[in-house]
């Protein structure tokens, strides 16, 4: 099958000679369906053939096997990167998704594909002008006093330009790449076919979950009006956090392909050098980011699922001189069902209390089955040994981090099996968790217990609120509120003890 697949790719690739014709007629060959399909089929065939031949005859688990496997992983990741960069659009989006799965995929893939977060294609100014004119009915000079030709940034779906309105306000204009919509449906079908072929040749590596997510989420992300509404919902939902800033939407200048919003600037959330230069406390940012996402996940069940560094900025307010977090790109959100959210709360509650029976019960309820130990490790990005002894008792170490990444390669077939079993809501949560941990790693705050403290508080609040809402007697509600207060006091006391332990006073006493 692999050889037949490889021959098919080679035959189709012969058609790439047509690219000269398309260049001569000023049509980008990368936009031609035949060429895009040929490139995807060929890359998939070459990667499959490489795995089948390079690992043949090697004994699994030996040093020779591990070395050969790492080399194949690296070659395949480079080929996948080249495919995504050439085919653009949907391929870059999927590549970015894979690049964020630090604790689910081999390091060779994630480190290579992470480049796609900062390496996205740009549309020409003429193409951008055409989209704006088609959607808003006016030319750029009629809408803006100035419009910067060079984009502030380009992503898989769109690029953002800085502009000034006629009333003097500075805005960011997000414009969708013109060919994305027409290619998206075809790309998803192509990916589904290729992934089924890979699953047939390598039964242990079924990535059906990835296609399911793409089919469900990508059409939603292409609707910028939906993104604008998401931004307003989350800004209202989290308005109690004074440090959070969400750009305001200019609805009169927004359509499904053009989104005009308040211009906000700052440094990327993983840029320690920027924070040190501007007097921003790294630990404060890490703690506040954890607060935001704990509130979204456990309390509200409405979660921003794309917190890669380019979408989360930090800055110091010129008015209050306090650090602020700017949350951008609100296209990808997950609405958690109440049943799922509460089970996820109870799972984390059990993890915090080292309740092994609870960990097994709620992992099973979330679809993990007998793979519940692996599931708990994936959710927390901690080893089973650390989970058994208490994840809030033992800070994560570099040795444990390396061990987790090594095990991700070792248990990849089981991880894929698990990802195909759990509810679809869990997939985006796992991706979000991985992106947040990547930020913590960059800021060197992963060893801090602050994130666990924030999650504990939110879990207690969410579960208590649910129990109160379903309790009919005032006495019962009073007991629930009293228990909640005690739990929160315990968490606060634990936080104070950690602060004392970390202080110079503790060092002096010791």
Please outline the helices and strands:
Blueprint (H helix, E strand, L loop, with lengths): L1 H12 L5 H6 L8 H22 L8 H25 L2 H10 L7 H7 L11 H12 L3 H4 L2 E2 L5 E2 L3 E7 L5 E7 L3 H22 L6 H14 L2 H14 L6 E2 L12 E5 L4 E2 L3 H6 L4 H19 L1 E3 L7 E5 L6 E5 L5 E3 L2 H15 L3 H10 L6 H9 L3 H6 L8 H13 L1 H8 L4 H20 L6 H20 L4 H29 L1 H6 L1
Parallel strand pairs: 5-10
Antiparallel strand pairs: 1-3, 2-3, 3-4, 4-6, 7-9, 8-11, 9-10
Helix pairs in contact: 1-3, 3-4, 3-9, 4-5, 4-6, 5-6, 9-10, 13-20, 13-21, 14-15, 14-21, 15-16, 21-22
How helix-rich are the residues, as a percent range? Answer: 55-70%
What share of residues are in beta strands? Answer: 5-15%
Poorly predicted ranges: 1-26
Strand-pairing-aware structural class: alpha+beta
How can the largest sheet be summarized? 5 strands, antiparallel
Helical stretch tally = 23
The termini sit apart by 67 Å
Rg, alpha carbons: 25 Å
Q: Tell me, what's the shape?
A: globular
How many strand elements?
A: 11
User: Residue-averaged pLDDT, rounded?
Assistant: 84
Can you walk me through this structure?
- It contains 23 helices and eleven strands.
- It is α+β, with helices and mostly antiparallel strands and 510 residues long.
- Helix content is 61%, strand content 8%.
- Strands 1, 2, 3, 4 and 6 form a five-stranded antiparallel sheet that branches. A four-stranded mixed sheet has the order 5-10-9-7, with helices on one face. The protein has a two-stranded antiparallel ribbon with strand order 8-11.
């Amino acid at each position: 099958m692999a050889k037949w697949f490889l021959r098919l790719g080679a035959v189709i690739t012969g058609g790439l000679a047509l690219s000269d014709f398309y260049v001569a007629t000023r049509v980008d060959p990368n936009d031609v369906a035949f060429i895009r399909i040929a490139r995807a089929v060929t890359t998939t065939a070459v990667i499959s053939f490489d795995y089948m031949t390079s690992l043949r005859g090697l004994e699994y688990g030996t040093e020779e096997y591990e070395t050969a496997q790492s080399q194949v992983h690296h070659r395949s990741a480079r080929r996948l990167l080249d495919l995504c960069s050439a085919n653009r659009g949907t391929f870059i989006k999927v590549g970015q998704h894979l690049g964020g799965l630090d604790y689910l995929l081999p390091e060779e893939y994630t480190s290579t594909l992470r480049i796609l977060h900062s390496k996205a294609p740009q549309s020409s100014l003429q193409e951008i002008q055409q989209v704006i004119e088609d959607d808003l009915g006016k030319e750029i000079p009629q809408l803006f006093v100035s419009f910067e030709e060079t984009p502030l940034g380009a992503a898989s779906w769109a690029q953002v330009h800085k502009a000034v309105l006629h009333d003097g306000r500075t805005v960011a204009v997000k414009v969708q790449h013109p060919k994305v919509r027409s290619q998206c449906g075809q790309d998803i079908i192509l990916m589904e076919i290729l992934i089924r072929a890979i699953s047939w040749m390598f039964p242990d590596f079924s990535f059906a979950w990835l296609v399911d997510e793409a089919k469900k989420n990508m059409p939603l992300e292409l609707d910028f009006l939906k993104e604008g509404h998401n931004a307003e919902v989350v800004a209202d939902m989290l308005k109690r956090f004074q440090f959070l800033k969400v750009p305001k939407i200019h609805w009169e200048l927004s359509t499904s392909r053009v989104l005009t919003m308040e211009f906000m600037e700052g440094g990327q959330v993983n840029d320690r050098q920027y924070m040190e230069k501007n007097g921003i406390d790294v630990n404060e940012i890490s703690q506040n980011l954890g607060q935001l996402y704990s509130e979204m996940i456990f309390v509200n069940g409405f979660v921003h699922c794309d917190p890669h560094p380019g979408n989360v900025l930090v800055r110091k307010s010129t008015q209050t001189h306090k650090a602020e977090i700017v949350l951008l790109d609100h296209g990808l959100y997950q609405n958690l069902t109440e049943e799922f959210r509460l089970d996820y709360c109870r799972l984390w509650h059990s993890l915090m209390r080292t309740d092994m029976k609870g960990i097994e019960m709620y992992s099973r309820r979330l679809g993990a089955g007998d793979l519940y130990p692996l599931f708990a490790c994936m959710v927390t990005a901690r080893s089973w040994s650390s989970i058994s002894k208490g994840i809030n008792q033992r800070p994560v170490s570099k040795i444990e981090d390396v061990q987790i990444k090594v095990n991700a390669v070792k248990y990849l077939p089981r991880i894929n099996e698990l990802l195909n079993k759990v509810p679809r809501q869990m997939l985006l949560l796992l991706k979000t968790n991985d992106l947040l941990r990547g930020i913590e790693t960059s800021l060197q705050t992963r060893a801090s217990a602050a994130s666990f403290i924030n999650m504990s508080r939110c879990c207690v609040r969410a579960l208590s609120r649910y129990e109160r809402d379903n309790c009919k007697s005032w006495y019962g509600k009073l007991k629930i509120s009293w228990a909640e207060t005690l739990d929160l006091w315990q968490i606060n006391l634990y936080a104070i003890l950690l602060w004392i332990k970390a202080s110079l006073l503790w060092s002096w006493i010791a």
